[in-house]
Structure formats: structure tokens, C-alpha cells
Design goal:
heterodimer, A: 410 residues, Rossmann fold, 2 domains, elongated, B: 299 residues, mainly alpha, two-stranded antiparallel sheet, 76% helix, globular
Chain lengths: 410, 299
């Protein structure tokens, strides 16, 4: 009796095993882990990030998934909400890897969160492709499992400085006579941008006349603007996330601060055109990506195709945060295909050898894991639209430098 | 040093800095009135002060959404926040009136986090502004800019301070509030419903902050996490002015605003807040010395 029962159980177990193996054959799923900010102060951009990931996921899966070795695998993402706090981010990364058994990670939103999560993924040798951590300091720590598809922070406004030098003649000066005013938030990411700008300025021999570090919690820039108005710099650079961009645009118009060039970051996350209309005109804005660029891939098609599909799916035009997030998923898919395996080590090596074009731009990682194949673009707000004005390869219009004085505007 | 020379080279910049300091100081004072009141009467330090300001801003945005002038947001925000303040008192604050100060800090801190997250859910984390429709004045060949909404904020802060003072002095409820603040037990014996007095105090505080928030969204900008600077500033102003000293609150608010602007200009924006805290320490030390001297007389 006992023998019969044992035999029965063994048979059942064997059947279950076979069924299980067959199931795996039919539906191989690679789960990527991601902690993104769905609540807290980064929730807007966290949502853009998640939407970008999901759209890429959907498209790849609709096409049957990714070919890994000789089977087709679907991609899935396990999300947690990191509440925009770094401590929570690293806790969740730990949980994704240890409890949920995730072997690959997508990045969170913001440099701060990426900085908190990278040591964890590094510890467990889990490859992470991130799309929203641009701080230079992420790539000086010798991380081996961190890959970033976006341009790093010190490049953000390099093209604005170059543009100023090119157009120095129009402002009646030589490049080495130009002066810069900087109003840049006092946080690691923004200060990286500042370091890049100062380095670039030095190359041309430009002089910094105002160098204010904006406090994180202030919604008033009048002291800095009073200084700028008195000192007449040629190039005024503002970087303080969406809050800095909105405050600068509004208060410069109110105080009629005239500068020949105004360049800033985070224009689109601050929605400066929609919110401030004419006051935003002629502003130069650094961007990771623009829908009008001519990059292409076979998942999304062109940059414009991506923008249209995104708009149709989520009801708003994709900010670059969404585009770069989608690109991160594509990079993973490409690496799985080339690795022919889901072994984290092999996938890491494949990632390191990535050389591809996506709708978002060319992607090739250097030894530190940052993307060195894609330049930043510079928009200018012209007639209520973002128009690419630099680099010249994609420029749709010549930049208007110097900007008209407030008294000459209608 | 360069910046100091600049101030001497172009003295007109002093005017701009001073005015900007007064405008923002008036709004700080407005938020601080309520804190002084709640602290003085109920012995509660309301950490959610800045969140009431933020909420007032969002109420104004609702008014704008309804197609009305954002100026109507000032009374609207005040009324909504008054009701909210009352409700919060009935739900949470009454439990902590007699408790340890630490408990009240924790409870109001909790309220502040809840409000931040709630507004983040409802309105998103974007930076929002409202256009007051009032204009700007450009003086001295556009070397000094005066925004009319900021002038309005300044005038309102004074008027509300004055109104509050009269209310506390003359009205029945105002007298009850003062009596309760002096000795709650005696007030209760004399037939004052202290629980109602507390509720009213807390609600008035919220209403004042709401009005301040409406001005903030028109003159500056708001987002769900904008509250903290206002809480910190109110706290400092109240410490400087002393509890229940409304004139002192206005003076401290304006002084703080102006000091911040000049510090920001001379030392750079990054030292603006550091300077303010340094100032606070200096004021406290000076007060301590003064008090010690007074104690000497008494001996």
C-alpha cells in the first residue's frame, strides 16, 4: 500500500516537473526590477520613467519578445515605489534582488536615487541600465555593473557655452571678453553642471561674474537677478530643476532682466512655454533628446514615431525622461539577444560591448559605463515652440542671439 | 567683496533689495501670526504651518480653475483653511493640547507629511503659479521693480495683523482666547469653553496661513514641498518676537526678510539661510544676556 502511494506521488511529481519545464519553454519571461518614484517630489518624472519603460516593454513583447539563445523570451518589469527617498530606493533594490530574485535592474529616476541603488546592484553583481541618473560622480566610482544611456551632467550646457563663443561677434565681443552669470542649485547634480560650464568657459577664457548657488528650498531668485541686472553678463545660465527654471523665467520677465543669452536646464519639465508663454521666448534649453532628431531603430522607428506612439498611448508628448527610459529597455533587449543567455555575467559583458542606434540616440558605453556616443541638444523657444538650434547637424533654425530686450518686445 | 563694492557703486540696488526683503518678510509675518497664537495659547508648535500655506496656494489655483480672479483666492483659501483647521482640531489636535511638547511636534509633523503627499497626489509635483492680473511698476529707469501683488501682500499683512490685534483685544472670543492662554483652568471655571477656544485658535491660524498661501502662489510659486521654508521662518520669527507679540512678529518678519535679501546678495544665495540662522543665534544670545541682567535687578 505504501509502495503504491509513493509510486503515485513520484509519478505526480514527475508530471508536475515536466509540465513546469514545458511551461518555461513556452513562456520564458525575463523580469527586470525597478524602483521608481511614484509618490514624493519626483513623482511626475517617476511616472514619465515608468511610462517609458512600459511602452518599450509592450512593443518588444508585441513583437514576440526577445530572442535569447534559441527561445523567445517576454520581458516584464517588477516595480516598487521608492517614494523619492534614496534610503527607500536602496532598501527596495535589496528586496528586488534578494527576495524577488530579480537578476537585472532598470534605473530609478534622478541621480540621487541612482547613487543610492548602484552600490546594491554592484554588491550583488546585478547589471543595471539606468536612464535618469546623469551625475558625473556616478561614473567615477569604478562601478562595473552600471550603464547609463543618457549624457552626463557636465555635458548639459556645454553646447550653450560653445554657442556663446560662436556668436560672440553678434554681441560685439571676442569669445574671451564674454562674461557669464551662473545661478545653479546647490545639489550634487546641478553642481556637476556648474563644473562643466566653468570648465568650458575657461577654454574660451570667459569670465564668471555671478556665481550663485541657489538653495534647494527657495522659490525666489530676486537677489540673484538684481545682481545679474546690474552686471550685464552676456550669458546667463540657470539650473535648478523645474523649480529653478520656472522661477527664473517668471521673475526675469517681471524684473525685465536683459541678457543677450539665457540658457537653462529642465525647461520642459517646468513646462515654461505652456505656463509663461511669451516670457519664455528666446530661452535656450538643454535637452537629452528631441522628437525631431533623425535617429532610428527597428522597435520604435524614428524619434518622431516614438513621440507619436507615446502621445497616443499616454495622452501627452514624451519628455526626454520618457524617451531615455524606453531606450534603456531597448539596450537590455539588445544585450540579451547578443549574450544569448540570461546569465547576469554574460549579459553584463554584452552590455559593455553595446554599440547601437536607438530612436533616442547612439549608444556606446565607455569603461565607466556612461554613454559617450550621444551629444546633448540645445533648443531655443521660438514662437512658442522648442526649436533645435545646436548642434548644427540637427539645427532646424539659427538661434536668435542676442535676445531682444524686454523693452523691444511686443 | 565685489558684491559690497557693487552696492556702493549702484546704491539704487539697496532699494530693490530692501523692498524685496519687505515683501517677502510680510508674507513670513503673516504665516508667523498664527504660529505665535497657537504656540502661545495651546503650547503647540505647529510643524504643519508651511503646509497650510501650501494648501492656501492650491485653493487659489482652484479658484483660478473655476475661471475667477486669483485675488478671490485670498478669502476663499482663508475660509477653506479655517474649516480644515477646525476639523483637524476636532480630529487630532485636541488629543495633544495637554500632552508633552514632543508629542505635538510629532503629531503636527505627521499632519504635514500627509498634506504634502495628498497634494502631490491631487495636483502633482509640478511648480505652479497664478497670475494675479496686477501689474508691475518700473522705477528709476528700470533699476527697481515693484510688483503690485507683493505690495498688496505687504498691506494685507499689516491689515490682518491689525485686525487680529483688535479681535484679540475687543471681541468676546478674542478675550476668551487671551484668558485661556493666561490660565486655562481659571478660564474654564469662569465658564469659558476652552475646547472651543482652542479649536477657534487653531482654525484662525490655518486661515491666516491660507491667506498667506494665496499671496505666495501669486507673488512667487508653490509645489507640494514648498512648506518647510515657511515653517522654519515662522518658527524663527516667533522666537525672535516672543509669544503673543503681534507687533514684534511684523517687525521680526520684515527684518528677517530684508536681512535675508542682503545676505543673499553679499554672500551668495547659498549662505542666505545660514546667515539667517546665525542671526537667530545672535538674537537669542543677546536676549539671554538681557534677561540675565533683568534677573540681577530683581535680586
Amino acid at each position: 500500500m505504501t509502495g503504491f502511494r509513493t509510486g503515485l506521488m513520484a509519478a505526480a511529481a514527475a508530471a508536475a516537473l515536466v509540465a513546469g519545464a514545458a511551461g518555461a519553454q513556452a513562456a520564458c519571461t525575463i523580469t527586470l526590477g525597478a524602483a521608481v518614484s511614484l509618490t514624493g517630489k519626483y513623482s511626475t518624472n517617476g511616472t514619465h520613467t515608468k511610462n517609458g519603460y512600459n511602452l518599450a516593454l509592450k512593443l518588444i513583447n508585441d513583437k514576440g519578445g526577445v530572442k535569447v539563445g534559441d527561445q523567445m523570451c517576454k520581458l516584464a518589469v517588477k516595480y516598487y515605489d521608492d517614494e523619492s527617498t534614496p534610503a527607500r530606493g536602496s532598501e527596495l533594490a535589496e528586496r528586488l534582488i534578494k527576495q524577488d530574485g530579480v537578476k537585472f535592474m532598470l534605473g530609478p529616476y534622478s541621480s540621487g536615487l541612482t547613487k543610492a541603488i548602484a552600490p546594491v546592484t554592484e554588491k550583488y553583481k546585478v547589471p543595471m541600465v539606468e536612464a535618469n541618473g546623469a551625475s558625473r560622480s556616478l561614473f567615477t566610482k569604478g562601478y562595473k555593473y552600471l550603464f547609463a544611456v543618457l549624457s552626463t551632467s557636465e555635458q548639459y550646457l556645454a553646447s550653450a557655452v560653445a554657442l556663446a563663443a560662436e556668436n560672440a561677434g553678434k554681441m560685439g565681443k571676442k569669445p574671451n571678453q564674454l562674461t557669464m552669470a551662473l545661478a545653479i542649485q546647490n545639489d550634487p547634480f546641478s553642481q556637476d553642471i556648474r563644473a562643466g560650464v566653468i570648465d568650458d568657459g575657461k577654454k574660451y577664457g570667459m569670465k564668471v561674474v555671478v556665481d550663485d548657488k541657489l538653495p534647494k528650498d527657495l522659490n525666489d531668485m530676486t537677489t540673484t537677478l538684481t545682481k545679474v541686472r546690474a552686471l550685464h553678463p552676456d550669458l546667463f545660465i540657470v539650473s535648478g530643476h523645474a523649480k529653478g527654471a520656472a522661477t527664473a523665467i517668471r521673475q526675469m520677465a517681471e524684473m525685465k532682466v536683459d541678457v543677450p543669452m539665457l540658457a537653462m536646464t529642465h525647461c520642459d519639465s517646468a513646462k515654461i512655454i505652456k505656463k509663461f508663454g511669451k516670457a519664455a521666448e528666446y530661452t535656450l534649453c538643454a535637452s537629452q533628446w528631441a522628437p525631431t532628431l533623425t535617429y532610428k531603430d527597428d522597435i520604435f522607428g524614428s524619434a518622431m514615431d516614438f513621440a507619436k506612439l507615446f502621445n497616443k498611448t499616454y495622452g501627452y508628448m514624451p519628455p526626454y525622461q520618457a524617451a531615455e527610459s524606453a531606450a534603456a529597455v531597448e539596450v537590455f533587449a539588445d544585450a540579451f539577444k547578443r549574450a544569448g543567455s540570461t546569465d547576469p555575467q554574460k549579459v553584463r559583458d554584452a552590455l559593455a560591448a553595446t554599440e547601437m542606434q536607438t530612436f533616442y540616440g547612439n549608444i556606446k558605453f565607455d569603461a565607466t559605463g556612461k554613454n559617450v556616443a550621444k551629444p546633448m541638444v540645445l533648443y531655443q523657444v521660438l514662437n512658442g515652440k522648442y526649436v533645435v538650434v545646436a548642434p548644427s547637424k540637427w539645427a532646424a533654425a539659427k538661434p536668435i542671439i542676442p535676445r531682444p530686450k524686454w523693452s523691444e518686445r511686443k | 567683496m565685489d558684491n559690497l563694492n557693487l552696492l556702493f557703486a549702484a546704491p539704487i540696488l539697496n532699494v530693490q533689495l530692501l523692498l524685496d526683503g519687505l515683501w517677502i518678510g510680510a508674507i513670513f509675518a503673516l504665516a508667523a501670526f498664527g504660529m505665535a497664537l497657537v504656540w502661545g495659547v495651546m503650547n503647540i508648535i505647529n510643524i504643519a504651518q508651511g503646509e497650510f500655506v501650501m494648501l492656501g496656494g492650491y485653493m487659489t489655483l482652484l479658484v483660478v480653475k473655476a475661471g475667477l480672479s486669483p485675488l478671490l483666492g485670498i478669502p476663499f483659501a482663508a475660509v477653506v483653511l479655517f474649516i480644515l483647521g477646525w476639523a483637524l482640531y476636532r480630529a487630532v489636535i485636541w488629543r495633544i493640547v495637554d500632552a508633552d511638547m514632543f508629542i505635538s511636534l510629532l503629531a503636527t509633523f505627521g499632519i504635514s507629511i500627509m498634506m504634502q503627499q495628498l497634494m502631490n497626489e491631487v495636483f502633482g509635483s509640478d511648480v505652479r503659479t497664478a497670475e494675479s492680473g496686477l501689474g508691475m511698476n518700473y522705477l528709476f529707469n528700470n533699476q527697481v521693480t515693484v510688483s503690485q501683488i507683493k505690495v498688496l501682500a505687504f498691506v494685507l499683512a499689516f491689515a490682518i495683523g491689525m485686525g487680529l490685534w483688535l479681535f484679540l483685544k475687543k471681541s468676546r472670543l478674542g478675550q476668551a482666547i487671551r484668558a485661556t492662554s493666561q490660565n486655562p483652568r481659571a478660564a474654564r471655571i469662569l465658564g469659558i469653553d476652552t475646547s472651543r477656544v482652542y479649536a477657534a485658535t487653531y482654525a484662525i491660524n490655518a486661515a491666516l496661513c491660507g491667506a498667506a498661501g494665496a499671496l505666495v502662489v501669486m507673488a512667487y510659486s508653490i509645489h507640494p514641498y514648498v512648506g518647510l521654508p515657511y515653517t522654519v521662518r515662522s518658527f524663527m520669527i516667533v522666537i525672535m518676537a516672543g509669544l503673543g507679540n503681534l507687533g514684534g512678529v511684523i517687525a521680526a518678519g520684515l527684518g528677517l526678510g530684508a536681512a535675508e535679501q542682503f545676505a543673499g546678495f553679499l554672500l551668495g544665495a547659498e549662505y542666505q539661510l545660514a546667515f539667517v540662522f546665525l542671526l537667530l543665534v545672535a538674537v537669542l544670545v543677546w536676549r539671554q544676556i538681557n534677561l540675565a541682567r533683568k534677573r540681577q535687578y530683581l535680586k
